[in-house]
Amino acid sequence: MTNGGTALVLGATGGVGGEVARRLQARGWRVRALHRGAAGPERFDWVRGDALRASEVAAAAEGASLIVHAVNPPGYRRWAELVLPMLDSTIAAARASGARILLPGTLYNYGPDALPEPGEDAPQHPLTRKGRIRAEMERRLEAAAAAGTPVLILRAGDYFGPRAGNNWFAQALVKPGRPLRSVTNPGAPGVGHLWAYLPDVAETMVRLVERAPALPAFARFHMAGHWDADGTEMAAAIRRASGRPELPVRALPWRLIALAAPLVPLFRELSEVRYLWRQPVRLGNARLLAALGSEPHTPLDEAVRATLAGLGCLPAG
Fold first, then answer.
1. Above 50 in pLDDT, residue 1?
2. One CATH from 2.40.50.100, 3.40.50.720, 3.20.190.10, 3.90.226.10 for 6-161+196-226+280-297
3. How crowded is the C-beta side of 198, counted as CA atoms within 13 Å?
4. Band of the pLDDT at 40, cuts 50, 70, 90?
């Protein structure tokens, strides 16, 4: 797939969707961004439309050779009702336009039976509602690929980055928009955890798109990302970035989150994926290296410093 085509991005105002859209545009792609409200700050071709309305997605995708499906319900609300219909709209639009679908994948579709090092083709037996939806998304995409619509999926660890939205870093480890007073660590002592810097994820996705002609119709890849071997390195990097080695590190109050889960949708979602913090989960990137030769990898301290600055957690200058 050559540069300079048209890409439709669903979720361009979000973390991964925005990062991918900006990189595509920098590579010469024309980026259309579907959005229900007013145009965003980026210089994309903003198209008013709803990802739930198949006709509006299809109209926006006309002439596109790539559809980036990075849209999610805001605030983890109504996942069971909205996620799969939105994906169905994308699949129908891609089928009509002949576009390839690009999906940012997660670890949630893996159950404990596939851990600690699931392969790209490992069985998906999730235990959570969100995981079951994620697994069904991939099943539908694989069926679409078998019917002639090419699909590309990139799975990675927990996202962090200067423009990231709903993720563990911004919602648990630190408080965006506030000076750092402490760091919260959701993990169990000594348990490794996998992180993915969003600019690296987006760069990896774009490089895979550029090599799309050499990929199978249904292609899945894993990123190695940033492996925190004992669950302490991310907090240490935040301390270094803040210049405060004495910054307190506190455990996440999982018990309180579980008690509030019935009333707070976010806490319910966090509680369901606690198993990913209780045991190490690591992704191998051999398939990715075979396709790209290397994996984009920003040094951890640089990535954390940029993330904290973007979240408004560091003093100006």
1. no
2. 3.40.50.720
3. 27
4. low
Instruction: Write the DSSP symbol of residue 107.
Output: S
Lowest mean pLDDT among 167-171, 228-232, 271-275, 307-311: 271-275
**Please, are residues 22 and 76 in contact by the beta-carbon 8 Å criterion?**
no
> What percentage of the chain's residues is helix, strand, coil (to nearest 5)?
40, 15, 40
| DSSP 8-state symbol, 173 | I
| Cα–Cα distance for residue pair 96/7, rounded to 1 Å | 14
Phi-psi region of 250 (alpha: psi -120 to 50; beta: other; left: phi over 0): beta
Lowest mean pLDDT among 6-10, 185-189, 228-232, 257-261: 257-261
d(C-alpha 235, C-alpha 187), whole Å: 11
